[in-house]
Amino acid sequence: MQHVLSEQELLRRQKLEEIRNSGIDPYPAEEFLINASTVDIKQNYNRDKLNYKDISIAGRIMSVRDMGKAAFAELQDSSGRIQIYIKRDEICPGEDKSLFDLLWKKWVDIGDIVGLTGYVFTTKVGEISLHVQSLKLLCKSLKPLPIVKTDASGEAYDEVTDPEFRYRQRYVDLVINPRVKKTFELRTQMMNSIRSFLNEHGALEVDTPVLQSIPGGASARPFMTHHNALNIPLYLRIANELYLKRLIVGGFDWVYEFSRNFRNEGMDRTHNPEFTILEFYVAYRDYFWMMNTTEKMLEAVAIDLHGTPEVNVDGKIISFAAPYKRISIYDAIKEHTGVDVSSMQEEELRLVCNKLNVQADKTMGKGKLIDQLFGNKCEMHYTQPTFIIDYPVEMSPLTKKHRSVSGLVERFELIVNGKEIANAYSELNDPLDQRSRFEDQVKLMERGDDEAMFIDHDFLRALEYGMPPTAGIGIGIDRLCMLMTGEVSIQDVLFFPQMRPEHRTENETKE
RNA sequence: GAUUCCGUAGCUCAGCCGGUAGAGCAUUACACUUUUAAUGUAAGGGUCCCGGGUUCGAGCCCCGGCGGGAUCACCA
Known about the structure:
The chain contains 16 helices and 20 strands. Residues about 505-510 have low confidence and may be disordered. By secondary structure, the chain is of the alpha+beta class. A hairpin with a 2-residue loop joins β18 (about 410-415) and β19 (about 420-425). α6 crosses α7 (about 180-200), α7 packs across α15 and α13 packs antiparallel against α14 (about 455-465). An 8-stranded mixed beta sheet has the order 8-12-13-20-19-18-17-16, sandwiched between helices. It has a 5-stranded mixed β-barrel with strand order 1-2-3-5-4. Strands 9-11-10 form a 3-stranded antiparallel beta sheet, with no helix packed on it. The chain has helices at about 5-20, 40-45, 90, 100-105, 165-170, 170-175, 180-200, 240-250, 285-305, 330-335, 345-355, 365-375, 430-445, 455-465, 475-485, 505-510; strands at about 55-65, 70-75, 80-85, 115-120, 130-140, 150, 155, 205, 210, 225, 230-235, 255-260, 275-285, 310-315, 315-320, 325-330, 385-390, 410-415, 420-425, 470-475.
């Protein structure tokens, strides 16, 4: 894919040939046995010196300080880095000094992967280091690694900050920016923590279809594809809600799934075309129970990750300690616009939107208009976790009607740092009501709302067999991860965020 | 999709009023057997994102495109 090789790349290819010609395999097949990690050595050496002979470690050479007949270098393995000390007469005890003079001094570059054996010692200046007794090349690297140097005070020089470079070549980003690796390790810890919480409470993790013939469970534009053998259109899922509810019909009491969803919409620092939502559904519960459970779970996760419910996001301290504030969407709108919209109909709402400079076109029904008002005027004000509750029925086609207030549904969204991270409700289980809500969606679609829901007849059939009263929730895992790791862009919590393809000329693609 | 900023060596970045392309690190050579942003001396390295235009002359000005960031719109 590279048309013109740089000076440094040509040189590394030459070295590769010289290595081969000398009889050394630059890409050996046999395993290299490791018996320690750099972090293990650094943490335990001082306490337990006797056990740090005959050490075998492997990793990437990250810097070299040659000193003539000896050299210091830094080796990075999956756990961290350690300084290594290589003395010529130590690794080449006989007459033949080529292992040091050629392999080490001429051929090994920064970025190469090597296996080392030796013993641990502390240098004059007090740095725990590996005194190398044998050196084996495990992989010759052909591209120069952009090296980030850090001085004694921890300040980084030549740090690769170009987001395009970092996202397109995440493998390099991970090698050279240790913080990035930490973010992704934290993401996995977060998922594990959520799993533990749910499993300990008796939930069952399940898998449901990604390819769906009717994309349901959310209002969004789907990606379309085609199945050749069946000769039918299929959609990549926008949500797994309707499938999890079918499982509740089938007799499971608590199911959950980390669902990779796909939505064919705009991208920005909080939206990627594919993203992950945790959904779970619990029989015989309602949305109050779900609020209690959600705040308990998020508090537990934050403590698991940080030892405290407080996290620092963009200079703001956000506390996940339960309980969270609860406020109805009408009260929220009243609080931030001064307008009581609770009894308004569509036309009046549109006037309010126009007056407040909130976009309100003709395809928008009452529910969407209220959603617009909240999204544009209120949402950003909720920094600390806040449950917004009791939404109008028009914007919630899968939600059970409110037990005491007509026109509302039993739904909440959780807002943190001005962004929605969860959406939940007492699930609608009245099959006839569900059918008429779907039919309302069809009317919206006919008005031009390209995000209105399709009718899912099989789902209606399932509900007709009977679904127990159920509470359900969807939690945006990427956004939660942003909060838990302090990242402000979704691209920094996804290994490979969606990017435009890199431009390639005819020649470049051949290589 | 709209607005706006950006694209120069492997990396981070300078580049004046339009006048033959610069630094640090990295690389190469030599020296150096406990250094740590190692050091000293020397050297090499460029499709200035791409394509047009203006000009005697363009990294710089103008037009178009590609890619990225930010803001907005849509959305979670």
